[in-house]
Amino acid sequence: MSRPTTEQFHQTSRTKAIAAGNEEASTTLNLGEFQDVDTLTLSEAALVINALVAKRRNDRKNINETEMLSKTVDYLDAFSRFKKKENVEAVERLLSSHKEFHKFERAQLGSLCCETAEEAKTLIPSLTDKISDEDLQELLDEVNKLMPN
């Protein structure tokens, strides 16, 4: 008895469509529908969320915070690197001065606070051909000067 060949079988399923949410931040940024969306660092997001929560608390004495909001505030408080508004704004100005970076890359640099250019390019591979190691190291040194001790 001969074995059936692949030509003898009919396709029983549809070809798989490319799933939405196939975003990728590798050497090439493929952010899909988020490609041109403004991006915040964790420190900027913490400022925004904390200001919103404070305003809600002032406006309504019985604020009903959701568990998700509380967890988000806790996360941002734990992982935002810059706590003072002046430092958050200074980091944003430093990063925004580099027009060669995508908004996403600037937000990643401001959130990760890498110590070396090599670390930054490893964690954010799309930076590799956009800036020299020396210039990136200079930028990272300036950002890290703004971090609390």
TrEMBL record:
A GO biological process of this protein is: DNA-templated transcription initiation
Q: Which UniProt keywords apply?
A: Nucleus
Report residue spans for region: Disordered. Answer: 1-21
Give the species this sequence originates from: Xylaria arbuscula
Q: Name one GO cellular component term.
A: nucleus
Do you know which Pfam families this protein is assigned to? RNA_pol_Rpb4 (PF03874)
Q: Which family does it belong to?
A: Belongs to the eukaryotic RPB4 RNA polymerase subunit family.
Location in the cell reads:
Nucleus
| Segments forming domain RNA polymerase Rpb4/RPC9 core | 32-149
Biased-composition ranges, Polar residues, are 1-15
Name the predominant localization.
nucleus
GO molecular function term, any single one: nucleotide binding
Under which name does UniProt file this protein? RNA polymerase Rpb4/RPC9 core domain-containing protein
- Organism lineage: Eukaryota, Fungi, Dikarya, Ascomycota, Pezizomycotina
Lineage: superkingdom: Eukaryota
